[in-house]
Design brief:
Layout lengths: L3 E6 L6 H14 L5 E6 L5 H8 L4 E5 L16 H6 L4 E4 L2 H6 L4 H13 L3 E6 L3 H5 L3 H15 L9 E4 L13 H18 L1 H6 L2 E4 L4 H8 L6 E4 L6 H10 L1
Parallel strand pairs: 1-2, 1-8, 2-3, 3-4, 4-5, 5-6, 6-7, 7-8
Helix pairs in contact: 1-2, 1-11, 5-7, 7-8, 10-11
This protein binds 1,3-dihydroxyacetonephosphate.
1,3-dihydroxyacetonephosphate binds next to strand 8.
Family: Belongs to the triosephosphate isomerase family.
Pathway: Carbohydrate metabolism; erythritol degradation; Carbohydrate biosynthesis; gluconeogenesis; Carbohydrate degradation; glycolysis; D-glyceraldehyde 3-phosphate from glycerone phosphate: step 1/1
Catalytic activity: D-glyceraldehyde 3-phosphate = dihydroxyacetone phosphate
């Protein structure tokens, strides 16, 4: 049985006082729901997570990292720095990074490799745009994005990856993928991993992201290949985030 995982992606939101309120609200409402839970926060707030979450069941992580270990890379943050602040997860290749920062699948794969080398769990994000879906390219796009990572990561590390399917047309739009559409994509992704290593594919956590809310989470997470959620907007309110975790 794969354990469910719910990760909140705060994107570029938050401030110290608001974060404290949100994190303490999450901690106060968490019971043993049988799911793992984490927040991926803007890098400046990793220290705050370390201070406020360290004795809680909530893990924390970052939204991006550099492929470089150290050196003259102004503005970048290394995997080792994230580890220094207790991060466990790091998003790699979120669609907003791919779209606004022109991150290629090859770069995303290198980021996953850098994360793994430092002991972080990369959450590799894949997803098609509406245009690509309407052109019948969903499978080639999402499996191509995943394949770059499968090709780059050492066989021993494959089992340490988390994948997130986030259809771009469902992110922040209120248009959730139907459970059937999401399940179909998740099954394709799992089958692609299975071509490389079937036992790893069977154990891999594949999360859904895109307008997941307390009222649609249950049906999505009931699908056989959906192992949790990567939550944007609904992760910014403790009640909504807890509602999604509870849906597990
Ligand atoms: O991009 C997302 C999480 O990474 C999803 O965002 P929303 O939940 O706001 O649609």
């Amino acid at each position: 049985m794969r354990r469910k995982l719910v990760i909140g992606n705060w994107k570029m939101n938050g401030n110290r006082a608001g974060n404290t309120a949100l994190l303490s609200g999450i901690i106060a409402g968490l019971n043993d729901f049988g799911a793992d839970c984490a927040v991926c926060v803007p890098a400046p707030y990793l220290a705050q997570c370390q201070a406020e979450l360290q004795d809680s069941p909530v893990a924390w992580g970052a939204q991006d990292l550099s492929v470089h270990a150290a050196g003259a890379y102004t503005g970048e943050v290394s995997a080792a720095m994230l580890v220094d602040f207790g991060a466990r997860y790091v998003l790699c290749g979120h669609s907003e990074r791919r779209a606004y920062h022109k991150e290629s699948s090859e770069l995303v794969a290198q980021k996953a490799v850098a994360a793994l080398a430092a002991g972080l769990t990369p959450v590799v994000c894949v997803g098609e745009t509406l245009e690509q879906r309407e052109a019948g390219e969903t499978e080639s796009v999402i499996c191509g994005q995943l394949q770059a990572v499968l090709d780059a990561v050492a066989a021993d590390d494959l089992a340490k990856i988390v994948v997130a399917y986030e259809p771009v047309w469902a992110i922040g739009t209120g248009k959730t993928a139907t459970p059937q559409i999401a399940q179909e994509a998740h099954a394709l992704l799992r089958a692609r991993v299975a071509q490389k290593n079937a036992p790893v594919a069977a154990g891999m956590q594949i999360l859904y992201g895109g307008s997941m809310k307390p009222d649609n989470a249950k049906e999505l997470m009931a699908q056989p290949d959906i192992d949790g959620g990567l939550i944007g907007g609904a992760a910014l309110k403790a009640a909504d985030f807890l509602g999604i975790i509870q849906a597990v």
